[in-house]
Each structure stands twice: as structure tokens, then as C-alpha cells.
Amino acid sequence: MIDVDAHAPEREIIARAAEILKNGGLVAFPTETVYGLGADALNAQAVLKIFETKGRPAWNPVIAHVASINAARELTTAWTDNAEKLGSAFWPGPLTLVLPKRDIVPDVVTAGLVAVGIRVPSHPVALALITALNRPIAAPSANRFTELSPTTAAHVQNSLGDRVDLILNGGPCDVGIESTVIDLTSDVPTLLRPGAISREQLMRVLGGEVRIAPHDTDTEGEARLSPGRTERHYAPRADTWLFDADDVATIVRATGEFRTRNSSASLAALVLDWSLPLDSEVHAIRMPRDPLAYARALYATLHQLDAEGYSVIAIQRPPRSDAWAGVHDRLERATH
């Protein structure tokens, strides 16, 4: 691991990391969403190392990160009006566009599908690394498959250890959950994965409808257009539950019964309502009421509770609204 200035990354550090990628190695680096496990996206053998290192199944595609709209155009056979609108509005930023791929994109990147996810990240370290390599970087989250995504370099170290050639420590991520993913390969744009950029924001820019993709079932070996759509994903090691504030009595009863059966168990709760009558022995953590601030804190909080060895984590379900959709998606998969 090596520290890098998150705002003005040192040229020699970026050059060292780019050389590792050029030679087919793996570099973990910060983006504004989560830390990515990067490889040269046009080098199939290098991208295969991502799958091996993460224990990621071949049917789960990875996103190609580029430094500009012009670079994104070079990866697709159909840069559409909708792509231009969304790229101009939200890039650099936490939005991934799924578009028909050019043959230069290896099939391993797209899980054998004919479309590729493309994103221009806004983090200075990520942009500097992509620019130094002068090629797109494939970079899913830098953690073992289905586990909690990393929002610090220490999370990467704890998950992947020395299986990564270099970890660039650029501090905590600003967004905290993975990018919004929208499919532009059909007539009606389809939201595949919600994130910090909401469906409402997408529709406002596009001036039309954005469908919500139906929930995937875990059909063995079936390729997906977007990562992050397995039923269980983003999951801490602890047993994790979701509960509604109006049903807190059920959680109180369940935690009491759990402790009766497991006297050494420790329980934590992520709450929005500080007045909930939780068991006095439950470690309650007040979460932000703003959806973007909640997303920024979520993974770091769950990582900390895992590190402290909590047996059970109960999470109060946030409000149901478009702005909270990305958080809801992560919580529902984490507790599946």
C-alpha cells in the first residue's frame, strides 16, 4: 500500500501504478464511489486476474473506466443521443452507461454479452491513473465477491491482502456506494442498478421515461448486463436484518430470543429514529437522515461493526423514495 494525494496525485506514484497495469498487473485505487480493483480493460488475461482475485463468477461483467466522453465513444459501436445527454450531464461522476461494445473490448469484460458498461470517474487519482495508462481500466469493487465494498484502502487490504500488486491509498470515498447503471441498448432506457444519481435525475436529463429493470434471480451462469445484481451482495459477515420502525417490537423480541440462545452474541442496530425502544444491550448507531450522507457512511459503518465482531446487525429501513433507491438496493441485497 502507498499513500497518494487524493487531490493532486503525485506523478511518480501514478506512473508506477500505470506501469503495473501496463504489464498485466492489478492496482486497487480510489474512485468517488468505492475503491476499484483495476486492470487494463483491453488485456483479457489481466482482466481474468480480477475475477480470480475476487472469486468473481465469469457471468458477472465489469465496468470499463475511461477519462473522457471521447474515450467512451471508442468503446462502443453506437454512441447515442441519450448517451451524449447523460455523459454531458453526469460525467465525470457516478454513472455507468451500458452500450453496444466494439470488438476491442474483450468478452471477459462483458461476461460474453455484446454490451459494455462505461464510466468516467471523477476522483483525481482514478482519472490520473487512466490518463497515465492511456487505456480503459476495468475496475469492479476491490473486495471478495458478494462481500462489503471497500470505501478505504484499509478495507481493500483486509479483504484482498497481498493478492493485489499495489493499493493506492487516497483516503475515504466521497459517494460510498457503487455507480448508478443505466442500459441504453434498447428503445427505452432501463435502470439496472440505482445509485447516487437517481432515476428522477436521469429522466429529467433524458426528457422521457426510464424503466426499472425487474429484480434478477440467481440463475446459475446467466450473464447480466450490470454488476451488483445478484440477490445477495454487499454483505457484512454478521447476520444482518432489516426492520421497519413500526415493527420495532418484533426486532426487540427477536434480539432477546437470539441472546437467550446465544449468550455471547453481540448486537448492533443502524437507526434513523433515535427514540426506538431497542434492547438496552443493543449498540445503536444513529445514521444520517440525508440519503447521500447515509450512503457515504453505510459501508464504512458495516465494516467497523464486522471488525468489532458483532454477531447481528439490525438496520432500520430508510424512507421509500427515489432519492433512497440506491441505499435500499444495497440494504436489501446485504440482508437477502
Q: Brief description of this entry?
A:
By secondary structure, the chain is of the alpha/beta class. The chain has helices at 11-22, 44-54, 69-73, 81-90, 107-110, 124-133, 153-160, 199-206, 248-261, 291-307, 325-334, and strands spanning 2-3, 27-30, 35-40, 64-65, 95-100, 115-119, 137-138, 166-169, 180-183, 190-193, 211-212, 239-243, 267-271, 283-286, 312-316. The protein is globular.
How many separate helices? 11
Which H/E pattern describes the elements? EHEEHEHHEHEHEHEEEHEEHEEHEH
Q: Spatial order of the strands in the main sheet?
A: 1-8-2-3-7-4-6-5-9-10-11
Label the overall shape.
globular
Helix and strand composition category:
alpha/beta
Q: What percent of residues are in strands?
A: 15-25%
Task: Give the overall average pLDDT.
Answer: 91
Q: Summarize the biggest pleated sheet.
A: 11 strands, mixed
> How helix-rich are the residues, as a percent range?
25-40%
Count of β-strands: 15
> Radius of gyration, Cα only, in angstroms?
20 Å
